[in-house]
Design goal:
By secondary structure, the protein is an alpha/beta fold. Helix content is 39%, strand content 14%. Strands 3-2-1-4-5-6-7 form a seven-stranded parallel β-sheet, with helices on both faces.
Length: 273
Amino acid sequence: MKNLFDLTGRVAIITGGAGFMGPKHAEVIANYGGIPVIVDLPELDPNKVAKILSDSIKKNVVGYTADITKTEQVQGILDFVLKKFGRIDILINNAANNPKVESTGLTGWARFENFPISLWDEDLNVILKGSFLCCQIIGSEMAKRKSGVILNVASDLAVIAPDQRIYRQDGLPGDQQPVKPVTYAVAKTGLIGLTRYLATYWADVGVRVNAISPGGVYNNQPEEFIQRLTSLIPMGRMADMDEWQGAILFLCSDASSYITGINLTIDGGRSIW
């Protein structure tokens, strides 16, 4: 049964790989024999992140700098990986703009009535356009080779609406209350649509396409926010940093060889309450 989860020699491109959860995705891929390629913007220094992770887990982790909203740079990712490894087996679309309302206090401008069109374009570019380009360029290579896995990282907010009450701050008028911006939920919902589309589009050429919709992860959020959020979760807590890794491994490995087009919700039960 262990062989079902064996990723030995398989190459995985992880966008947004130098961010909050990207290194955790890379870690589980590497620990099961795969070769993760962490892709991110230059200011996040994916090469440095890859080196730190590689030294920590004693596995081969590679960094690559690129802007996935630019076609030629996505093509560059593919060319680099094929030249270095001669194959591409897994694409994890993980990149996203995701401002932390509970930490940054997005007031006023983040509310729907005032939301800037420039930020609408920027957020959807990263999550939707970036994922589209990676699927189009890297996924097409998989389709040509008749083998591959695409995993889109969506969100519990692609399944349910944001509960803006958990961000409320006492003493602020209604039009100044912080909220989760509209773009995150819209773009993550779009990722699930892209998942279903490609799962059927490439079903006959050996490319499986799935999504996960994780809930919140503990990351030193304010205690009041944690209490409000966990009261909405049947399991009574947020996720720990490592608790998405099993789902990542399952959906990227042969353990899920007859699964395509699903969205696996990992939220402690929040979306069913």
